[in-house]
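Workshop exercise sheet. Pairs work together: one partner reads the sequence aloud, the other fills in the structure field after running the prediction. Swap roles for the next sheet.
Pair: D.N. / O.F.
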Amino acid sequence: MATSSNKQKEKDKTAPEEPTKKKSGKLIFGFILCFLMSVGASAGITFFLAPKEAKQSSTTENKDVTKELATFQQTIDSQNEKLQAIKAENDILKLYLRHSSATALKNILINQEDNIQAFLKVLKASMGDLTKQLQDNTPELKNWNEQYQYQLDLALKGSLEREDLLKLLKTGEPNEKSQ
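Structure field:
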């Protein structure tokens, strides 16, 4: 019986070892299965909840951007209206400046200088023609004509200088280049 009791004891010793190996393998498999299920569950929840939050935040951002664009458009429209009003006022001011008394006086003086210059040119040509016709009769006429032509040249030069100064005179009218 000793052998049978030894065998029994050996069976008893081996028997508890086999179930512990099976239990430990099952336990590890259970932990792995539990870990995979928890990871899968949290990944699934994250997957289903995250796009809804992203859609909500993007929808909110789109609404904010749309509001800002509407505000910018209103600002641009109001600025364009103000710009049109300023352009209209600018045109009216240009018209007033063109018809102001200072500008009118300047233009009258410039026209007067032009007329004086035209008169001096005609007078100079006339004196030259008269000198040619009368040169045969009077030899001193040539010296007189040269002196007279010199005086007319000085008067013409002075008139041209006055005209240039009048053109430089600022009377508030808009420049022709800017129009």
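Discussion prompt: Helices lie at 2-98, 101-134, 141-168. What would you look at next?
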